[in-house]
Amino acid sequence: MDYASVLEELRRERDQVEEAILILERFARRERRDQPQRQGRPRATGKKRRPSGESRNRAPKEAAAEAAPASAPVPKAPER
């Protein structure tokens, strides 16, 4: 085994790896610089958006109208 040739090959590989690392670091810096800083609450991703007029706590207007009976007068309590 020729140690000198092994060391020379390893040094060349190390130089190539270091060069690749520097290039990737430059790309990462440029990418961070180009993106605006985000502020506030992050967007809710993966959730379905409700059509306007629908609430999370209420049934849709059409279904609520069908489910609710017509309001009947409330009987008065007997007088004493």
What's the short story on this structure?
This protein has 80 residues and is mostly helical.
Characteristic key phrases:
single chain, 80 residues, mainly alpha, 49% helix
Describe what this molecule looks like in 3D.
There is one protein chain. The longest helix is centred in the N-terminal third of the chain and has 32 residues, at 3-34. This protein is 49% helix and 0% strand. It has 80 residues and is an all-alpha fold. It contains two helices and no strands. The radius of gyration is 35 Å and the shape is rod-shaped. The protein has a domain at 1-33.
Give the topology, please.
Elements lengths: L2 H32 L26 H7 L13
> How is the biggest beta sheet arranged?
none
**Radius of gyration from the alpha-carbon trace, in angstroms:** 35 Å
Quaternary state of the chains? single chain
Structural class per helix/strand content?
mainly alpha
The arrangement of helices and strands along the chain is: HH
Tell me the overall shape: rod-shaped
State the distance separating the first and last CA atoms: 115 Å
Q: Strand portion, in percent?
A: under 5%
Low-confidence segments, given as residue ranges, are none
Q: Mean pLDDT score, rounded?
A: 78
Strand tally: 0
Q: Please give the share of residues in helix.
A: 40-55%
Contiguous helical run count: 2
